[in-house]
Fold this sequence. Notes:
This protein is an alpha/beta fold and 438 residues long. Helix content is 44%, strand content 13%. It is built from 17 helices and 14 strands. It has helices at 10-21, 33-40, 51-60, 70-76, 98-110, 127-138, 158-163, 175-184, 200-231, 235-243, 264-277, 283-306, 334-344, 357-363, 373-377, 397-403, 418-422; strands at 2-6, 25-29, 64-67, 79-82, 115-119, 144-148, 168-171, 195-198, 315-319, 348-352, 368-369, 382-385, 408-411, 427-429. The strands form 3 sheets. A 6-stranded parallel beta sheet has the order 3-2-1-4-5-6, sandwiched between helices. The termini are far apart. The model has no long low-confidence stretch (mean pLDDT 95).
Amino acid sequence: MKIAMIGAGYVGLVSGVCFADFGHEVVCVDNVAEKIEALRKGEIPIYEPGLQELAASNSEAGRLNYSTDLDAAVAWADVVFIAVGTPSRRGDGHADLTYVYAAARQIAKAVDGYTVVVTKSTVPVGTGDEVERIIRETNPEADVSVVSNPEFLREGAAIGDFKRPDRIVVGTEDPRAIAVMTEVYRPLHLNQGPLFFCERRTSELIKYAANAFLAMKITFINEIADLCESLGADVQKVARGIGYDKRIGDKFLHAGPGYGGSCFPKDTLALVKTACDAESPVRLIETTVAINDNRKRAMARKVIAACGGSVRDKRIAVLGLTFKPNTDDLREAPSLTIIQALQDHGARVAAFDPEGMKGAEQLLSGVEFGSDPYAIAAGAEALVLVTEWDEFRALDFRRLHATMASPIFVDLRNVYPQQEVRRHGFEYVGVGRGSDRD
């Protein structure tokens, strides 16, 4: 099929490349000429394992192209995906739909023949109705079906998620659109990817409900971690014990510094605002948002406590800046809040991240960025592991002990067994590990 992907950001680019790899003809459209020119040269603007190689092979095969000409791409396509940004709106936290609605107007003017217009961006319930209204108002002759098809991609594992999904949610009751969307995802039938068709508004809510539930699960285990510290229990064993229950499951039960990224923070907030507008408040999610906001500064206080109650004029080394491993995404990353809080208390912060330092330089001031963990640890009063990159899982603690001013290791991801670190002469501080028993 011929697919136009409007928006060459994270979702649009990953989706477009994967659709091309399925055998469809794909054009990724973006209004930033420099981005399109870079993509044509094979330069991928985001870090996602495997994406650059997959994009290159499909471009070489002629199935994947890039363009700034939205009109031509829409007129050519059988299916047009809207995959533009929906950031939190300043002032009230609602999802900003400016780019979605602008894309709808442009699509309406350019559409030629029957076309399925698919909202891939994460949007509040009712957005599809407004997109359809805009298209029909702009071009009453347009023969379109407006469909919701939310993405469920995890940064760092997006290609695998796209090709081996838990489910593919499609919001439409139009038989023509159902036939087209079935064909779009037909290659996944070999992987038994379950296509779940439902009403458009239901589809839009599924995306928000899924992210809110996962965010709530993370927040739940973080609160249990605090309780473990008070009671002398081990949160990792509590998580394992409850995770064996298939009704609960073991995913997203890893205590840490709180959730971040491009999805959970803005989607939970947008759901709260949507629910308030509908006069049906979601109190659990409201509390989840508040707890997570406080969580990040609480982790800075944990570092300060580990340093004897003060970090003034002390060098604190931070491992990991991105909100999770295998991405360069710094949006709402816990590290940013933790570093800022440490600086507010007078600390001198040094940091290292395999992929996030270029972006962090634009967001953080007064931070020394190093070439590796050992460079930033030299002379440090504490080493703080914030993001659990694989290369941080086998640190040479003897080498670190020899170079640090004070052997304090704060493990905000519980990567290391306590006794292993202490055996090398370190003071170990984890999250929710109130007992010394491993």
